[in-house]
Amino acid sequence: MFLRPRLILRRTAPPLTTTKPLGDDAIGEDIATMPERVLITPEAAALVERLRARHGDLIFHQSGGCCDGSAPMCYVRGHFRTGPQDVPMGRIAGCPFYMGAAQFEYWRDTQLIIDVVKGRGSGFSLEAPEGVRFLTRSRSFTDAEVEELSSQPPPLGDG
User: Fold this and answer.
1) Is 13 left (phi over 0), alpha (psi -120 to 50) or beta?
2) pTM to 2 decimals?
């Protein structure tokens, strides 16, 4: 069972939006201007670039807990299979980012911000040998952002 964090943030942060589609595949098709569901810090984006140079195309999946502790996991694209139960959240540093549908229901009104911190995670994510781990920070969408996102069809897995 996934639990929504108890931390309640005020919905006063300025909206973060994009004016371009989020990607060239099933993620972000036909999105004009709407809040992004997932962002990445410059430090994490720099790490993604190093990992991409070493491993090739990458994919992220927000883990649902258990052994890897609900962390964003980075894999070589094709080494992690997504299915209809995986929700495309957007793209970070040019990489598709997914979350399981059950977890998405708890986080649908929350913007994910992918960061990197020192320390090793406990999963199979590609950054582990670097002595760092990706970390998900978050903020609640403003009421206006929730309304705008609600007017769009829900993101669907591409199987």
Assistant:
1) beta
2) 0.75
CB-based burial, 137-148: b 16+ in 10 Å, e otherwise: eebbbbeebbeb
* Whether the Cβ atoms of residue 148 and residue 71 lie closer than 8 Å to each other: no
Assigned token pair, 108? 């649908």
Instruction: In whole angstroms, give the CA distance from residue 57 to residue 1.
Output: 31
Using only C-alpha atoms, what is the Rg of the chain? 15
CA separation for the pair 9, 116 (Å, rounded):
22
DSSP-assigned beta bridge partners for residue 114: 40, 136
Task: Give start and end residues of each alpha helix (H) in the chain.
Answer: 42-55, 101-107, 143-150
Separation CA 134–CA 116 (nearest Å): 4
Condensed to tens digits (0 to 9), the pLDDT of residues 68-85 reads 557 899 999 999 999 989
Residue with tokens 């406990």: 122
As given in the structure block, the two tokens for residue 4 are 């929504």
- Locate 70 and state its tokens: 């609900």
DSSP 4-22: --S----TTSPP-EESS-S
